[in-house]
Design brief:
Length: 345
């Protein structure tokens, strides 16, 4: 999405916020269901800050470059702890990046999605769902998933493909949120699966500086809330806060191609041919930012302390991920790890 388009979107979002201050608009003739989720069950994919702090004291992060995408995905996942959390009969929800109808890195590489779905079934999953909701300028999510090849790749591997455009949404108010005063809505589907695997892209972003695992969950909030967020002066912090509603078991960053400038739909492309994986969103994004630094990127990433970036800082304050470089256990294959370590500090 180009910057002018984002500015236009922000104005639309601001108008919506003024018309609907309680953020409870309608879609068509049907009101959005209002389900207040004030506490989180341990067997649900919804996150609690306590859970997150316990799980992520030290985070394994892998960065891998093999001869093929398939090999890179498999090795990166294995080095980040594997898929042992999947038990026979489980349902797994795979969240790609399908913000637009642009090929990767505007969206997730279909080969990455296909391999992850295949691995889920190999690990015992009974059902795998690939689902997303595209941005306001690309309203037909299924069309977008078909156009970029994600739908076909997912189906070929045995997954169901869902566009969340007209699905049921529930209102959540995660504890600790400062900027989502009225909460926000997420797909009810999230509460009906056993695990989420978050499959984002490494790329710069014209408004939020970068889009990786934390920002990928913007696709799992209702369009009206999304527009409200884009009209806010605290969009970066709000991205971190919405992650309180999700507890992905694994985060995979597709760095087969990346934007080092521009984004999220178009920009200057490099081809690292790498995959990053971690169970920790902050750790994954820090290594993604280090990779962009190694390639030469925007001043907002290249010339600042990435640990102080509002997305990262707010996520750390909320206990969503590790808090400093000492919490990252970086492993890899065919990558200069010392350079990535240096650039991640």
């Amino acid at each position: 999405m180009r910057k002018n388009d984002y500015l236009r979107w922000a104005k639309v979002g601001l108008g919506l916020a003024i018309i609907s201050p309680n953020l409870q608009p309608s879609v068509g003739n049907k009101d959005i269901p209002k389900f207040y989720v004030n506490s989180y069950s341990s067997n649900m994919v919804l996150a609690s800050s306590t859970e997150t702090r316990e799980v992520h004291a030290i985070a394994d992060v892998s960065i891998v470059k093999e001869n093929t995408v398939r090999e890179s995905v498999r090795k990166a996942v294995a080095m980040a702890g594997g898929l042992s959390f999947i038990k026979p009969g489980d349902t797994v929800l795979v969240k790609p990046n399908v913000n637009s109808d642009d090929p990767y890195p505007g969206t997730t590489n279909p080969e990455v999605i296909k391999e992850i779905v295949t691995m889920c079934f190999e690990s015992g999953a009974k059902r795998v769902i690939v689902a997303d909701r595209s941005g306001v300028l690309w309203q037909n999510t299924m069309y977008n998933m078909e156009k970029v090849g994600i739908a076909q790749a997912a189906r070929n591997a045995g997954a169901e493909v869902l566009a969340l455009d007209n699905k049921e949404w529930i209102l959540v108010k995660p504890e600790g949120s400062r900027y989502w005063i009225n909460g926000f809505r997420i797909p009810k589907l999230v509460t009906e699966v056993d695990h989420i695997i978050n499959v984002a892209v490494v790329k710069t972003h014209s408004i939020t500086d970068f889009s990786m695992s934390l920002k990928n969950f913007v696709g799992f909030i209702h369009m009206s809330d999304r527009m409200f967020m884009h009209s806010s002066g605290n969009i970066k912090e709000m991205i971190a806060e919405l992650n309180l509603a999700f507890n992905p078991k694994l985060n995979i960053l597709d760095a087969t191609r990346v934007f080092v400038r521009g984004g999220p739909d178009r920009g200057e492309v490099r081809e690292p041919r790498m995959i990053i994986a971690s169970r920790n969103r902050v750790a994954a994004d820090i290594i993604g930012l280090a990779l962009l630094r190694s390639l030469g990127t925007t001043p907002a990433i290249q010339d600042r302390d990435i640990w102080s970036h509002p997305q990262i800082r707010r996520a750390i304050d909320l206990g969503i991920g590790i808090k400093d470089p000492s919490g990252i256990n970086l492993v890899g294959s065919n990558v200069e790890l010392e350079e990535i370590r240096r650039l991640s500090r």
